[in-house]
Amino acid sequence: MLLYGASGHAKVIISCLRANLIPISGIFDDDLSKKELWKIPVVGSYRTDYKPNESLIISIGNNLIRRQIAVSIGHTFGKVLHPSAVIDASVEIGEGSVVFQNAVLQADACIGKHVIINTSSSVDHECNLADFVHIAPNATLCGNVRVGEGTLIGAGTIVAPNLRIGKSCLIAAGSVITKHIPDFAIVRGNPARVLKITSA
Predict the structure, then answer these.
(1) pLDDT category, 199, cuts 50, 70, 90?
(2) Local structure of 17: helix, strand or coil
(3) Each residue of 185-197: pLDDT tens digit?
(4) How far apart are the first and last CA of the chain?
(5) Known binding positions for substrate
(6) What is the DSSP string of 56-91?
(7) Between β-strands 40-41 and 36-37, what pairing exists: parallel, antiparallel or unpaired?
(8) d(C-alpha 191, C-alpha 197), whole Å
(9) Catalytic residue among 82, 114, 125, 180
(10) Distance between CA atoms of 72 and 49, rounded to whole angstroms?
(11) Are both 49 and 102 inside the same structural domain?
(12) Which of 57, 58, 81, 147 is the most exposed, fewest CB within 10 Å of its CB?
């Protein structure tokens, strides 16, 4: 497996890969001063001719940057599922996505491409997460929640069932979502309220 991004987020992905006994061949990073991460070589900026038969994970937590990078990648994308995660057999998980330690994905959840399901988060039955979503540590999505592309659900957030959260939203840590959220919203609080609608 190859990674793109020699960051703290990459360390968690490396931990997941090692738990699955999957070797990491190298890490791309545009910061040429970085030479290795946890004794894995950092091989410089991305290029398609470096180990072209290896799969790749974009190991960057920022949703927008991850989306920008994805369109330029020539390698196939892998996925990483930590063995401690509880994932129902009916769950669909798109390429490039990662599921970290102790996360729970329940029946008929659908996870898009390049999604981060972070440590100890819970995604309940029939939830649908679009591409480039990040569910931060200890966040809880109750059943049948829809989350739009590029949205960040902050750490410890609780989303009540049957709600729709728009694309490119920022849900602050610890929020409690009890109603639908429009696209491009910045949201915070218990109960959560929309603080601002950003431009597309």
Answers:
(1) confident
(2) helix
(3) 999 999 999 999 9
(4) 34
(5) 7-9, 61
(6) EEE----HHHHHHHHTT--SPB--EE-TTSEE-TT-
(7) antiparallel
(8) 18
(9) 125
(10) 13
(11) no
(12) 81
pLDDT score for 162: 98
- Residue 55: φ, ψ to 5°: -80, 165
Instruction: Give residue 12's domain range.
Output: 2-72
Cα 89 vs. chain centroid, distance in angstroms? Answer: 20
pLDDT digits (tens, 9 = 90+) for 25-70: 999 999 999 999 999 999 999 999 999 999 999 999 999 999 999 9
Tally of structural domains, the chain: 2
C-alpha 3/C-alpha 126 separation (Å) is 30
Number of Cβ atoms within 10 Å of the Cβ of 22: 13
User: Do residues 181 and 129 both lie within one domain?
Assistant: yes
Given this model, what pLDDT does residue 200 score?
62
Of 96, 5, 1, nearest to 45 (Cα)?
A: 5
Which residues carry a binding-site annotation?
7-9, 61, 134
Q: Say if residue 59 is in the same domain as residue 89.
A: no
Binding residues for acetyl-CoA: 134
Residue 125 designated active-site: yes
Block residue for tokens 């738990």: 19
Contacts of 64 (CB under 8 A, 6+ apart): 132, 150
